[in-house]
Amino acid sequence: MKSLACDFKVNLGQALVPRYHYLVNVQSFDLLNGKLQVSVRTMKIYTFQDYKAFLRDHVQSLPKGGRGESLKMARYLRVHPTMLSQILAGEKDFSLEHAQKVCEYLHLDEDEARYFVLLVLWARAGSVDLRTHFEKQIQELRERSLKTEKQIKKHRKLSSEDASRFYSNWKYSATRLAVGIKDLRTVPDLARYLNVTEREVGIVLRFLMEAGLIRDKHEWFEAVDDVTFIDADSPLYSLHHLNWRVRAVESNTERRKQDYTFTSPMTLSRETFAEIRSLLLSQIKVIGEKVVESPSEMLACLNIDLFEVGR
Protein backbone atom coordinates (compact mmCIF):
# COMPACT_ATOMS: atom_id res chain seq x y z
CA MET A 1 0.00 0.00 0.00
CA LYS A 2 1.34 3.40 -0.97
CA SER A 3 1.42 6.32 1.41
CA LEU A 4 -1.47 8.64 0.61
CA ALA A 5 -1.61 12.25 1.66
CA CYS A 6 -3.52 15.29 0.58
CA ASP A 7 -2.25 18.46 2.17
CA PHE A 8 -3.85 21.03 -0.09
CA LYS A 9 -7.15 22.69 -0.73
CA VAL A 10 -8.44 24.07 -4.02
CA ASN A 11 -9.85 27.59 -3.80
CA LEU A 12 -10.94 28.63 -7.26
CA GLY A 13 -13.16 31.64 -6.76
CA GLN A 14 -16.64 32.47 -8.02
CA ALA A 15 -18.03 31.97 -11.47
CA LEU A 16 -20.86 32.12 -13.95
CA VAL A 17 -21.97 35.51 -14.22
CA PRO A 18 -19.37 40.78 -19.01
CA ARG A 19 -15.72 41.22 -18.53
CA TYR A 20 -13.62 41.66 -15.36
CA HIS A 21 -9.97 41.30 -14.41
CA TYR A 22 -8.71 37.98 -13.10
CA LEU A 23 -5.31 36.57 -12.26
CA VAL A 24 -4.19 33.02 -12.94
CA ASN A 25 -1.10 31.81 -11.11
CA VAL A 26 0.10 28.23 -11.53
CA GLN A 27 3.38 27.05 -10.04
CA SER A 28 4.89 23.59 -10.16
CA PHE A 29 8.29 22.69 -8.78
CA ASP A 30 10.27 19.67 -7.63
CA LEU A 31 9.71 19.54 -3.90
CA LEU A 32 6.45 17.89 -2.86
CA ASN A 33 5.06 14.86 -4.65
CA GLY A 34 3.92 12.50 -1.93
CA LYS A 35 0.82 10.48 -2.48
CA LEU A 36 -1.99 12.83 -3.31
CA GLN A 37 -5.30 11.06 -3.15
CA VAL A 38 -7.67 13.40 -4.90
CA SER A 39 -11.27 12.58 -5.62
CA VAL A 40 -12.48 15.51 -7.70
CA ARG A 41 -15.35 15.42 -10.12
CA THR A 42 -15.19 17.67 -13.16
CA MET A 43 -18.21 19.59 -11.79
CA LYS A 44 -18.70 20.92 -15.32
CA ILE A 45 -22.48 20.59 -15.08
CA TYR A 46 -22.56 23.48 -12.63
CA THR A 47 -21.33 25.88 -15.30
CA PHE A 48 -24.50 25.31 -17.36
CA GLN A 49 -27.91 26.94 -17.05
CA ASP A 50 -29.24 24.93 -20.01
CA TYR A 51 -29.34 21.16 -19.56
CA LYS A 52 -29.46 20.65 -23.33
CA ALA A 53 -26.23 22.60 -23.78
CA PHE A 54 -24.69 20.47 -21.04
CA LEU A 55 -25.68 17.24 -22.82
CA ARG A 56 -24.45 18.51 -26.19
CA ASP A 57 -21.15 19.45 -24.59
CA HIS A 58 -20.94 16.01 -22.96
CA VAL A 59 -21.46 14.24 -26.28
CA GLN A 60 -18.97 16.45 -28.15
CA SER A 61 -16.32 15.95 -25.47
CA LEU A 62 -16.28 12.17 -25.96
CA PRO A 63 -13.78 10.41 -28.26
CA LYS A 64 -14.59 10.74 -31.96
CA GLY A 65 -16.91 13.62 -31.15
CA GLY A 66 -19.30 11.33 -29.32
CA ARG A 67 -20.33 9.41 -32.41
CA GLY A 68 -22.97 6.87 -31.43
CA GLU A 69 -23.49 8.35 -27.96
CA SER A 70 -26.93 9.80 -28.73
CA LEU A 71 -28.10 6.42 -29.95
CA LYS A 72 -26.84 4.69 -26.79
CA MET A 73 -28.50 7.30 -24.60
CA ALA A 74 -31.79 6.98 -26.50
CA ARG A 75 -31.76 3.21 -26.01
CA TYR A 76 -31.10 3.63 -22.29
CA LEU A 77 -33.96 6.13 -22.00
CA ARG A 78 -36.16 3.92 -24.19
CA VAL A 79 -37.05 6.76 -26.51
CA HIS A 80 -36.74 7.07 -30.29
CA PRO A 81 -33.41 8.61 -31.39
CA THR A 82 -35.37 11.26 -33.31
CA MET A 83 -37.07 12.39 -30.11
CA LEU A 84 -33.72 12.69 -28.32
CA SER A 85 -32.36 14.69 -31.27
CA GLN A 86 -35.33 17.04 -31.04
CA ILE A 87 -34.75 17.53 -27.32
CA LEU A 88 -31.04 18.28 -27.77
CA ALA A 89 -31.91 20.67 -30.61
CA GLY A 90 -34.16 22.61 -28.24
CA GLU A 91 -37.51 21.69 -29.75
CA LYS A 92 -38.79 19.62 -26.81
CA ASP A 93 -37.97 18.95 -23.15
CA PHE A 94 -37.36 15.80 -21.14
CA SER A 95 -40.05 14.52 -18.84
CA LEU A 96 -38.96 14.30 -15.20
CA GLU A 97 -38.81 10.52 -15.52
CA HIS A 98 -36.43 10.81 -18.47
CA ALA A 99 -34.39 13.43 -16.62
CA GLN A 100 -33.86 10.93 -13.80
CA LYS A 101 -32.81 8.25 -16.28
CA VAL A 102 -30.29 10.66 -17.82
CA CYS A 103 -28.77 11.16 -14.37
CA GLU A 104 -28.42 7.40 -14.02
CA TYR A 105 -26.90 7.10 -17.48
CA LEU A 106 -24.30 9.79 -16.76
CA HIS A 107 -23.59 8.43 -13.24
CA LEU A 108 -24.22 11.83 -11.67
CA ASP A 109 -23.90 12.02 -7.91
CA GLU A 110 -26.81 13.15 -5.73
CA ASP A 111 -26.14 16.88 -5.96
CA GLU A 112 -25.35 16.76 -9.67
CA ALA A 113 -28.54 14.79 -10.34
CA ARG A 114 -30.58 17.27 -8.35
CA TYR A 115 -28.98 20.13 -10.30
CA PHE A 116 -29.76 18.45 -13.64
CA VAL A 117 -33.39 17.83 -12.70
CA LEU A 118 -33.71 21.45 -11.54
CA LEU A 119 -32.42 22.59 -14.94
CA VAL A 120 -35.13 20.49 -16.57
CA LEU A 121 -37.79 21.92 -14.24
CA TRP A 122 -36.52 25.44 -14.94
CA ALA A 123 -36.74 24.83 -18.70
CA ARG A 124 -40.25 23.40 -18.42
CA ALA A 125 -41.59 26.12 -16.09
CA GLY A 126 -44.50 28.00 -17.61
CA SER A 127 -44.34 31.20 -15.60
CA VAL A 128 -41.75 33.76 -14.54
CA ASP A 129 -42.46 33.14 -10.85
CA LEU A 130 -41.95 29.40 -11.20
CA ARG A 131 -38.74 29.91 -13.14
CA THR A 132 -37.50 32.27 -10.43
CA HIS A 133 -38.33 29.65 -7.81
CA PHE A 134 -36.24 26.99 -9.53
CA GLU A 135 -33.49 29.46 -10.40
CA LYS A 136 -32.90 30.19 -6.71
CA GLN A 137 -32.42 26.48 -6.03
CA ILE A 138 -30.10 26.17 -9.01
CA GLN A 139 -27.98 29.05 -7.72
CA GLU A 140 -27.78 27.51 -4.25
CA LEU A 141 -26.44 24.24 -5.66
CA ARG A 142 -24.05 26.10 -7.94
CA GLU A 143 -22.59 28.02 -5.00
CA ARG A 144 -22.28 24.83 -2.99
CA SER A 145 -20.32 23.26 -5.82
CA LEU A 146 -17.71 25.99 -5.43
CA LYS A 147 -16.84 24.64 -1.99
CA THR A 148 -14.29 22.06 -2.93
CA GLU A 149 -14.41 20.26 0.39
CA LYS A 150 -16.89 17.93 -1.34
CA GLN A 151 -14.50 17.42 -4.28
CA ILE A 152 -11.54 16.26 -2.17
CA LYS A 153 -11.89 13.06 -0.19
CA LYS A 154 -11.54 13.72 3.52
CA HIS A 155 -9.80 11.26 5.80
CA ARG A 156 -7.83 12.40 8.85
CA LYS A 157 -8.70 15.68 10.52
CA LEU A 158 -6.02 16.68 13.03
CA SER A 159 -6.77 18.07 16.48
CA SER A 160 -6.61 21.87 16.68
CA GLU A 161 -3.28 21.71 18.53
CA ASP A 162 -1.69 19.25 16.10
CA ALA A 163 -3.12 21.10 13.10
CA SER A 164 -1.65 24.40 14.33
CA ARG A 165 1.79 22.86 14.32
CA PHE A 166 1.44 20.69 11.23
CA TYR A 167 0.29 23.58 9.04
CA SER A 168 2.72 26.10 10.50
CA ASN A 169 5.57 25.14 8.16
CA TRP A 170 5.93 23.27 4.87
CA LYS A 171 8.58 21.01 6.43
CA TYR A 172 6.00 18.97 8.34
CA SER A 173 4.00 18.08 5.25
CA ALA A 174 7.12 17.56 3.15
CA THR A 175 8.77 15.27 5.71
CA ARG A 176 5.65 13.21 6.17
CA LEU A 177 5.38 12.64 2.43
CA ALA A 178 9.10 12.15 1.92
CA VAL A 179 9.25 9.05 4.13
CA GLY A 180 7.14 7.35 1.49
CA ILE A 181 10.14 7.47 -0.84
CA LYS A 182 12.33 4.38 -0.53
CA ASP A 183 15.64 6.24 -0.30
CA LEU A 184 14.40 8.91 2.13
CA ARG A 185 13.47 6.99 5.26
CA THR A 186 16.33 7.95 7.58
CA VAL A 187 17.11 11.26 9.28
CA PRO A 188 20.36 11.95 7.34
CA ASP A 189 18.71 11.18 3.99
CA LEU A 190 15.70 13.36 4.74
CA ALA A 191 17.85 16.25 5.95
CA ARG A 192 20.03 16.11 2.85
CA TYR A 193 17.12 15.95 0.42
CA LEU A 194 15.03 18.68 2.07
CA ASN A 195 18.10 20.86 2.68
CA VAL A 196 17.43 21.21 6.41
CA THR A 197 19.41 20.17 9.49
CA GLU A 198 19.15 16.71 11.02
CA ARG A 199 17.97 18.35 14.23
CA GLU A 200 15.05 19.95 12.37
CA VAL A 201 14.16 16.61 10.80
CA GLY A 202 14.31 14.89 14.19
CA ILE A 203 11.91 17.42 15.75
CA VAL A 204 9.48 17.09 12.85
CA LEU A 205 9.61 13.28 12.88
CA ARG A 206 8.94 13.16 16.61
CA PHE A 207 5.86 15.32 16.19
CA LEU A 208 4.61 13.28 13.21
CA MET A 209 4.90 10.07 15.23
CA GLU A 210 3.08 11.59 18.20
CA ALA A 211 0.32 12.80 15.88
CA GLY A 212 0.00 9.33 14.37
CA LEU A 213 0.99 10.45 10.89
CA ILE A 214 4.07 8.20 10.55
CA ARG A 215 5.40 5.04 12.20
CA ASP A 216 8.87 4.27 13.51
CA LYS A 217 9.98 0.96 11.96
CA HIS A 218 13.25 1.08 13.95
CA GLU A 219 15.53 1.20 10.91
CA TRP A 220 13.34 3.57 8.90
CA PHE A 221 10.12 5.58 9.08
CA GLU A 222 6.85 4.76 7.35
CA ALA A 223 3.91 7.03 6.51
CA VAL A 224 0.43 6.14 7.72
CA ASP A 225 -2.05 5.64 4.88
CA ASP A 226 -4.28 8.59 5.70
CA VAL A 227 -5.26 11.83 4.02
CA THR A 228 -4.98 15.04 6.03
CA PHE A 229 -7.48 17.81 5.42
CA ILE A 230 -7.95 21.42 6.50
CA ASP A 231 -11.26 23.27 6.41
CA ALA A 232 -11.46 26.36 4.20
CA ASP A 233 -12.79 28.41 7.12
CA SER A 234 -9.88 27.47 9.39
CA PRO A 235 -7.43 30.29 10.27
CA LEU A 236 -4.69 27.83 9.28
CA TYR A 237 -6.04 27.52 5.76
CA SER A 238 -4.39 30.71 4.47
CA LEU A 239 -1.19 29.93 6.35
CA HIS A 240 -0.92 26.51 4.72
CA HIS A 241 -1.29 28.03 1.26
CA LEU A 242 1.15 30.81 2.12
CA ASN A 243 3.82 28.35 3.31
CA TRP A 244 3.89 26.49 0.01
CA ARG A 245 3.72 29.62 -2.10
CA VAL A 246 6.67 31.05 -0.20
CA ARG A 247 8.48 27.78 -0.87
CA ALA A 248 7.57 28.16 -4.54
CA VAL A 249 9.17 31.61 -4.62
CA GLU A 250 12.28 30.21 -2.92
CA SER A 251 12.43 27.46 -5.54
CA ASN A 252 12.92 30.06 -8.27
CA THR A 253 16.44 30.68 -6.96
CA GLU A 254 17.30 26.99 -7.34
CA ARG A 255 15.33 26.43 -10.50
CA ARG A 256 15.85 23.16 -12.37
CA LYS A 257 14.97 22.28 -15.95
CA GLN A 258 11.89 20.25 -15.05
CA ASP A 259 10.44 22.99 -12.83
CA TYR A 260 7.69 25.16 -14.27
CA THR A 261 6.14 28.49 -13.25
CA PHE A 262 3.29 30.27 -15.01
CA THR A 263 1.57 33.57 -14.12
CA SER A 264 -0.97 35.26 -16.38
CA PRO A 265 -3.14 38.27 -15.45
CA MET A 266 -6.01 38.42 -17.93
CA THR A 267 -9.41 39.90 -18.74
CA LEU A 268 -12.23 37.54 -19.64
CA SER A 269 -15.97 36.96 -19.29
CA ARG A 270 -17.44 35.39 -16.19
CA GLU A 271 -18.68 32.49 -18.28
CA THR A 272 -15.13 31.83 -19.54
CA PHE A 273 -13.86 32.12 -15.97
CA ALA A 274 -16.30 29.38 -14.96
CA GLU A 275 -15.16 27.20 -17.86
CA ILE A 276 -11.50 27.63 -16.86
CA ARG A 277 -12.35 26.72 -13.28
CA SER A 278 -14.04 23.51 -14.46
CA LEU A 279 -11.05 22.66 -16.65
CA LEU A 280 -8.72 23.10 -13.69
CA LEU A 281 -10.83 20.89 -11.45
CA SER A 282 -10.98 18.27 -14.18
CA GLN A 283 -7.20 18.31 -14.55
CA ILE A 284 -6.73 18.13 -10.77
CA LYS A 285 -8.67 14.88 -10.86
CA VAL A 286 -6.47 13.54 -13.67
CA ILE A 287 -3.30 14.61 -11.83
CA GLY A 288 -4.49 13.00 -8.60
CA GLU A 289 -5.21 9.70 -10.32
CA LYS A 290 -1.82 9.67 -12.02
CA VAL A 291 0.00 10.47 -8.78
CA VAL A 292 -1.76 7.70 -6.86
CA GLU A 293 -0.71 5.19 -9.51
CA SER A 294 2.83 6.55 -9.73
CA PRO A 295 5.77 5.08 -7.75
CA SER A 296 7.19 7.44 -5.11
CA GLU A 297 10.52 8.64 -6.51
CA MET A 298 10.60 12.39 -5.87
CA LEU A 299 8.81 15.23 -4.08
CA ALA A 300 7.03 18.00 -5.97
CA CYS A 301 4.49 20.73 -5.23
CA LEU A 302 1.69 22.02 -7.43
CA ASN A 303 0.14 25.36 -6.44
CA ILE A 304 -2.90 26.63 -8.35
CA ASP A 305 -4.61 30.00 -7.89
CA LEU A 306 -7.49 31.38 -9.93
CA PHE A 307 -9.17 34.49 -8.56
CA GLU A 308 -10.79 37.81 -9.46
CA VAL A 309 -8.30 40.65 -8.92
CA GLY A 310 -10.87 43.40 -8.44
CA ARG A 311 -13.72 43.66 -6.00
Describe what this molecule looks like in 3D:
With 311 residues, this protein is mostly helical. The protein folds into two domains: 19-41 and 151-308, no CATH class; 44-147, Orthogonal Bundle (434 Repressor (Amino-terminal Domain)), CATH 1.10.260. The protein has twelve helices and five strands. The chain has helices at residues 51-61, 69-77, 81-88, 96-106, 110-124, 128-145, 160-166, 170-178, 187-194, 198-210, 235-251, 270-293; strands at 19-29, 214-216, 221-223, 260-269, 301-308. It has a three-stranded antiparallel beta sheet. A two-stranded antiparallel sheet has the order 2-3. Helix 2 (69-77) packs across helix 3 (81-88) and helix 9 (187-194) packs across helix 10. The longest helix has 24 residues, at 270-293. The radius of gyration is 23 Å and the shape is elongated. The model is unreliable at 1-43 and 148-154 (pLDDT under 50).
Helix content: 40-55%
End-to-end distance? 46 Å
Strand content: 5-15%
The largest pleated sheet is described as: 3 strands, antiparallel
Which geometry do the CA atoms define? elongated
Task: From the alpha carbons, calculate the radius of gyration and give it in angstroms.
Answer: 23 Å
- State the order of secondary-structure elements, H for helix, E for strand: EHHHHHHHHHHEEHEHE
**Number of DSSP-assigned strands:** 5
| Strand line-up across the major sheet | 4-1-5
Weakly predicted, low-confidence segments: 1-43, 148-154
What integer is the average pLDDT?
Answer: 78
Number of helices: 12
| Count of all domains | 2
Summing up helix and strand content along with how strands pair, one would put the structural category as: mainly alpha
